[in-house]
Amino acid sequence: MIGNLEIAANAGASAAILLAGRNSVHTWWTGIIACALFGVLFYQTKLYADVALQGFFIVSGVVGWVQWRRGDDGSALPISHAKLGALAWIVPAGVAAAAAYGALLHHYTDAYAPFIDSAVLVFSVVAQLLLMQRKVENWAFWLLVNTLAVPLYASRGLCLTAVLYACYWVNAVVSWLWWRRLARQGA
User: Fold this and answer.
1) pLDDT tens profile 26-58
2) pTM of the predicted structure, to 2 decimals
3) Alpha-carbon distance 56 to 169, whole Å?
4) CB-based contacts of 95: which residues, under 8 Å, 6+ apart?
5) How far apart are the first and last CA of the chain?
6) Contacts for 141-148 with beta carbons within 8 Å, 24 or more apart?
7) Which residues, 6 or more positions from 161, have their beta carbon under 8 angstroms from its beta carbon?
């Protein structure tokens, strides 16, 4: 059954994600509210890595809001591409971190699907950090996260969340293409 908390969290997250794809600074405050609601929802469904992730999102939301507004000597950060060398170490480091955190959750908690949940956590952090820096490649990591999150959330009975994450997958593709165009225009 879809509850009011799941509806409210998804409404806020949907607004934030669509605003991010459209390059709007309002993505940050709407995301902060949604993350607080999701933190409670994920705690109730024993997705503990996702609870920790929501705390990270709240803090990064405040930082991202400031960075987007004043990040480049007082003007908004331009959209650009991440360096290939940075991406070459981020992926294996992310896999190792997800495995390590998943092992901790597996051995010390009653977490549901600790390794998949940890992968969602780790690569969401990577995607969020790239988004905060306005790097085009953040959308590729959001595609990975959404691909993992849809079946995870569906398996916990969070049907609305699973359906919306499938929509976020489509939004990530569209936003990736849009940001690539914006990066070319800014270059």
Assistant:
1) 999 999 999 999 999 999 998 888 899 999 999
2) 0.84
3) 21
4) none
5) 48
6) 142/168, 142/172, 143/169, 143/172, 143/173, 143/176, 145/120, 146/172, 148/116, 148/119, 148/120, 148/123
7) 6, 9, 10, 41, 153
